[in-house]
Amino acid sequence: MSAHEIDYAIMGEEIQCVEVQLDPGESVIAEAGSFMMMDPEISMETIFGDGNRGGGLMGKLMGAGKRLLTGESLFMTVFTHSGGYGRKSVTFAAPYPGKIIPLDLQQYGGKIICQKDAFLCAAKGVSIGIEFQRKLGVGFFGGEGFIMQKLEGDGLSFVHSGGHVIERTLQPGETIKLDTGCLVAMTANVEYNIEFVKGVKTALFGGEGLFFATLRGPGKVWVQSLPFSRMADRILSAAGNSGRKEEGSILGGLGNLLDGK
């Protein structure tokens, strides 16, 4: 095992957090901003990238620079048990309502591909890189972008989803279609492609977008019920409408006028 062997406990229901338990000398890496709380014996250090790439300063800069392509920060944070004895803990929180998914990379061939904002934290030794989708259709119309994250190694990693998460194991040749934003993660052998919605009327007026994501097995996929982009769109849409209209008031605009709005 090259990655540190960590233990964990996931807590909460709608908005979850994960408590990672470290023995002396063990470390966990996390996205900037995901930290919640830690024991006094835990030390933290900000690093370029995930700290696993060699090549001196230039190698670290290249590794960190690639993270900019996925919309993430140049930096990550390493939390290490610096005490001399006992097991201590550090806790990380999901950024929005949903589920935290623990992934033992050793069980999935040492590699998981996930959406670019799904990664939360991982055992020190796990490499967080980028995965280019090779097909132009995926790149142009994939909804969540041409570039995804890849988690490589043999340790524990944690990703988060929006809403409820469904795990599907695809048999060889088995295919499922889903909204392009609903994919959280997949094993490396799953074939990911984009399919145009058939029918002009359905495509233009169906309200579900112009493209499906198609996933072909064999492999395992994790699907979320509430992509963050969809939730953000609903919030922005509600913010642009009057409160009375959204609450079903029969007065509508007249009610807002009476309120002085």
What does this structure look like?
With 261 residues, the protein is of the alpha+beta class. It has a single domain, classed as Double-stranded beta-helix, CATH 3.60.160.10. It is built from 6 helices and 19 strands. It has helices at residues 56-69, 136-141, 200-205, 228-239, 243-246, 253-258; strands spanning 7-11, 17-22, 27-31, 35-38, 42-48, 75-81, 88-93, 98-104, 111-114, 119-123, 127-132, 147-152, 156-162, 165-170, 175-179, 183-187, 191-196, 211-216, 219-224. The strands form 4 sheets. The protein has a 6-stranded antiparallel beta sheet with strand order 5-6-3-10-13-8. It has a 6-stranded antiparallel beta sheet with strand order 11-12-9-16-19-14, covered by helices on one side. The longest helix is centred in the first third of the chain and has 14 residues, at 56-69. It is globular. The chain starts with 6 loop residues before the first strand and ends with a helix. Mean pLDDT is 79; it is low at 136-145, 244-251 and 257-261.
